[in-house]
Design goal:
Strand 3 and strand 4 (71-74) form a beta hairpin. Helix content is 24%, strand content 48%. The protein has 2 helices and 4 strands; from the N terminus they run ββαββα.
């Protein structure tokens, strides 16, 4: 039997609207997800890329697996491939 455990994940998205490139906005979202694969986070980011006019500048994902502290992963490489 395989146990899949979900942990609290915080996604911090910095973005700007195409009409206002000088204004960077921030969106913070928390959800339970499977770490380190983060399928729900990837689904959310792909939805934003496909359906929202905003340009994502930076994404930072943080989660704690065993209450030993937070692990932070920046998904910058993937964002650059979207553009």
């Amino acid at each position: 039997m395989v146990w899949i455990r979900k942990y609290l994940v915080t996604v911090d998205v910095f973005y700007y609207m195409p009409d206002y490139t000088d204004i960077i906005q921030e969106f913070v979202w928390q959800t339970d997800d499977i770490t380190p694969e983060l399928p729900r986070v990837h689904k959310f980011l792909n939805y934003c890329k496909d359906n929202i006019e905003a340009v994502i500048q930076e994404v930072q994902v943080s989660y704690a697996e065993h209450h030993n502290g937070y692990r932070t992963a920046e998904i910058v490489r993937e964002i650059k491939t979207w553009q």
